[in-house]
Queue: 2 jobs
Job 1
Amino acid sequence: MNAFTQPLPAVFFDRDGVINQSPGAGYVLSWDEFQLQNGISDILQVVHNKGYKSIVVTSQRCVGKGMISEAEINRIHQLMQSELAKTGPIFDGIYTFTGQAKDADWEKPNPQMLFIAARDHHLDLKRSILIGDRDRDIQMGINGKLRNTIRIRGDAEITVTPSHVVDDLPQAQAILEVIL
């Protein structure tokens, strides 16, 4: 891209609890434990049809804890992309906080993953949206000065106010169809 290309907006997705079913208090440590959420392919199709980039911003502290290797996290993400490609668009980028020293400043709610994705993909954060299921996700979006945040209601209490609260991805998709 050249300096005269207009930056694109993006929809940022948290992983566990948004893209795949939440593992609860634990971690997804293998592909066998990874279950895509109902509606993720449909919402990605809407995002791409509207000309937005789709970016994953995920915390996988299990790597830093030595429970899984970074190579295995990357393999899970590659398999996720392959599975999504069977029915439609895939994610344009994946950014992972691993809890290791090399990415210490990426920890949510720090917006560093958003800033790096914006640089790498020439994104306009002020026109972008984040979908998450935890306060730290929503706070990251607020800290990154994103236009909107969508909180998927789960088992965690909501103490950081998002732009929208929904029960599932189909409801998030309905909001995106209006605001994108």
Job 2
Amino acid sequence: MQIREPSVAYGHKKFTIEQYLEIENAATEKHEYYQGEIFAMSGAKLTHVQITGNIYGLFKNKLKGKPCQPYNSDLRIHIPPNTLFTYPDISIICGEPETLNNDEYNALNPIAIIEVLSPSTKNYDRGDKFKLYRDIPTLREYILVDSTSISVEQFYFNSQGNWELEEISRLETSLRFRNIEISFEMKEIYEGTKLLKE
């Protein structure tokens, strides 16, 4: 299973979780971990960074004084059932954050994850990565925001225990978070990017 471009770092040697965490804590770049392999994370283009910053700022503003808090890609998420360690673009945690062995590094309980899609990662983010994220018991919303066109895919966990998809591609519409009870205008998400100027 390929995680990101470039793919495997440190060759194809298998690492334990403890070895990965030791390497990562000393590293100057971020790496994901999955079933013994360590994967290098590539940098992001300007539009990706702008969109991520817009969304994070919107969350910080709209969640002020509420029990939920946004975290940027500096926060590492760990999923014990499948071993994945990863850095989502944005995570939302409601209530007290839970971390691996109370280490304050590896969060376990996001209610929502937002990934901004890049051409090199969009297939993984839509497919295999979403399957891995679904092993998070607290996860209720997974949002994919395209960085090459005005398009958002919103997956949410419905009352019947199934994941549903809603697609949004018009600037005049809003993205509504069902479990956090806030909404963003699509134009706010893409504000300042070249996509609004095309």
